[in-house]
Amino acid sequence: xxxxxxxxxxxxxxxxxxxxxxxxxxxxxxxxxxxxxxxxxxxxxxxxxxxxxxxxxxxxxxxxxxxxxxxxxxxxxxxxxxxxxxxxxxxxxxxxxxxxxxxxxxxxxxxxxxxxxxxxxxxxxxxxxxxxxxxxxxxxxxxxxxxxxxxxxxxxxxxxxxxxxxxxxxxxxxxxxxxxxxxxxxxxxxxxxxxxxxxxxxxxxxxxxxxxxxxxxxxxxxxxxxxxxxxxxxxxxxxxxxxxxxxxxxxxxxxxxxxxxxxxxxxxxxxxxxxxxxxxxxxxxxxxxxxxxxxxxxxxxxxxxxxxxxxxxxxxxxxxxxxxxxxxxxxxxxxxxxxxxxxxxxxxx
Amino acid sequence: xxxxxxxxxxxxxxxxxxxxxxxxxxxxxxxxxxxxxxxxxxxxxxxxxxxxxxxxxxxxxxxxxxxxxxxxxxxxxxxxxxxxxxxxxxxxxxxxxxxxxxxxxxxxxxxxxxxxxxxxxxxxxxxxxxxxxxxxxxxxxxxxxxxxxxxxxxxxxxxxxxxxxxxxxxxxxxxxxxxxxxxxxxxxxxxxxxxxxxxxxxxxxxxxxxxxxxxxxxxxxxxxxxxxxxxxxxxxxxxxxxxxxxxxxxxxxxxxxxxxxxxxxxxxxxxxxxxxxxxxxxxxxxxxxxxxxxxxxxxxxxxxxxxxxxxxxxxxxxxxxxxxxxxxxxxxxxxxxxxxxxxxxxxxx
Lengths: 349, 349
Fold this sequence. Notes:
Structural class of chain A: alpha/beta
Low-confidence stretches of chain A: none
Shape of chain A: globular
CATH topology of the largest domain in chain A: Rossmann fold
Oligomer: homodimer
CATH class of the largest domain in chain A: Alpha Beta
Distance between the termini of chain A: 32 Å
Number of strands of chain A: 17
Helix content of chain A: 40-55%
């Protein structure tokens, strides 16, 4: 698979530095779990599913490097590693889910050697599951796209964000592979420019026609009837179906509804958090204001000007036409449909 | 008056280069009308009223430099000057109104010397009228703002855009001068960053608290109930009340309506164009895609990626809570109210 955000081979983890894209492809060697924590914090790797996978490998690396031979001491130190990893970013739920799975794995094992091995295996399993989920949801979602459609996207939601195919970007790619001539209008996605830097890069590699616009132009094209659907990813989906996603998503959802254009969310079930009842309970990350006052290190605004930098917003479920997951496409009432998707007993039914 | 976009003194025109703000204040000496045309095209001076004033002075400079002593030859050459000036930018109507006034002035005069003098005087009159209109509409509009309000703005609408007080920015300034503690949330306004570069600079000079956000964050703050009103300028207002303004305005208007927040437009009557029946008839300028793929000269998107760059969008009048002009505040039905504002017979009544 091309364009993956990380590589795990023989117990070594490499992360593609997304801050350097599209101009340079720089692979960062992760020497320990702290490197992974820093890479997540600095958004060298980003996208909810990718963060979840990286965190799992990070904890496996942390376990490898804990010197303690005593199991109790080992678990105590591992707990510290998990806490540090969980503290990297607050909004994407995949991160916390990964950390919880790794912790549960450690508790289930007998000795330190065995635990290290089990943690490596669990990280690989999380990775494999995400890749598989991404592929499945991409092809399920592709059914919603028609030949000739123009899809409006926000942020980056290809394989760089979700190992495998991606989420919203994966749906576009799958439709393209089915022979549908899709065109993409890609929001640049200020302040971090994931759309301009990453989405355009991925689409170009896949040969999918793409037109870059500023976030403020989405309404213009929606209003002109030039968009067949808006398709985004998610960082956390509450039990109600409210969707936390990259800042600007809420505005797109409102504009889509106003213009009668469907608004689709694509995400693996690992992004659904039934323990969060509704969107207003989601912790929204506030990032460094310098990402807004500066542009790639250069000051744009006058010195001393304040800036706000919420990294995500919440789209109420009433604006969401469908949520595309690897277990099926959910529609209203989300509160029962999402629960059903996550219920193991119903899953096989 | 501080922070003016141009200076006319003893027949010489200087323009403050807004592409260099906020870091440097560079005044450009205009040697002839072509310099003015280039400055408008390259957005060294921008904002509908400011463009109108600059174009008038540009034509006065053009008239000064026409060598022809014969009146008919002179008028023919002046016609070329006016055509070039009118071709600089297509959306703001103030430009065409200024050019038309200058042309009418030339036709009314007897000899070349007299015509040159009359054109200078007419340009000064247009400038003075805009300054006065700006002051009046600012204080009229200030009545709509309450002590403690947070105002969301888009693009730049202070004195840099409209000589005197500004339009939307002028309303904020007038309310501030009345002692109302206004706070501003300023959209950065991609791709040209008028908000980050110019609005923040003006507000900082006036001592008005300002928080810079990306355009994509407006929905987040509106949704959280943190905004008391959205206040923007206009580049052209159709007879119906549809408003062409900086790209992104339409999205703000929809989000304001969705959240029950008033959406105000502030503009002198020189921006109202009764000959354009509705917004879909307004010519929207499409600018160089490099303004989107590049950021201050540096490429952001991968090489070869297409981009769109519509500079304006149209907000249907149904989203507009009020239009603030120097002759009063208009509300629905705009189609009759705007006509009344522009009717000389009703004006004095």
